[in-house]
């Protein structure tokens, strides 16, 4: 399986996974560690990945990698492993800006994106599926299929009250089974999420009456899960993806700002998209912000799958003219907060 790759193979595999998303990649080995530098074409957004083939990722590794990325001023970073991630690592990552993708998440990507050929190509020394089948069908692709078949046969018992095994060593048993019946729909690759990069466009009209400072961060995803405990998720429509944006607002001017959902839009491929409301979750609330006031909110946009785009402020949507200064903070948590 993926965990059978050596360090060199896994680094090449991670690079190929990001290349499928339109990034340029370069694998670098440093002091026994494998990194993958990624960049959007034409000198665009840059990122650094630490590819770790097996084991459990700990909080100290996350902190070390975060420090390294800060030294080199890397804006986007992620640790990708075929192993597991400790609770401490998850906690440290929340404040470090380092995103985490474990073996279970990699398997979900391969299954849903129909990219299991990558596991076949780079796993087991690059052996073909036919050659692996002669040895008992042990190629990553064969095992992904076999795991799905075995897990599917257990579903009736699992959903009838019996428990589904969830040991970390079982890379894809539960995930593939749930995907097969549609319980899980959607997957996000760190700072990719199935789509292109997100930017924001500041505006400074000469006749502006006040200034709004917006600290923001965004991610692209196929599903939104506001509350992991209630079993409810919002899947993106067929051929679409969500752009989820978290924003912190401050009125730094002298006048009042009428803050509304319709003021913020997402532009991609010459089209402009308005906020996508979610049932039972309000997101950005409409309000008037006096000078010096703060507010935190989020918005969701539904756009064509694979799109890259820009968050914009629509002056025509509200009364008055406002100068808007967007500043991205990659450490700002991007989620649907409960209200």
TrEMBL record:
Organism domain of life: Archaea
Stretches of the chain forming a coiled coil according to its record: none
Parts of the chain that traverse the membrane: 169-192
Source organism phylogeny: Archaea, Methanobacteriati, Methanobacteriota, Stenosarchaea group, Halobacteria
Residue ranges constituting the DUF4352 domain according to the UniProt record: 223-317
Protein name from the UniProt record: DUF4352 domain-containing protein
Signal peptide: none
Protein's GO biological process: DNA restriction-modification system
Location of region: Disordered: 120-143
Any one GO molecular function term: endonuclease activity
Domain Restriction endonuclease type IV Mrr: 3-109
Keyword terms of this UniProt record: Membrane, Signal, Transmembrane, Transmembrane helix
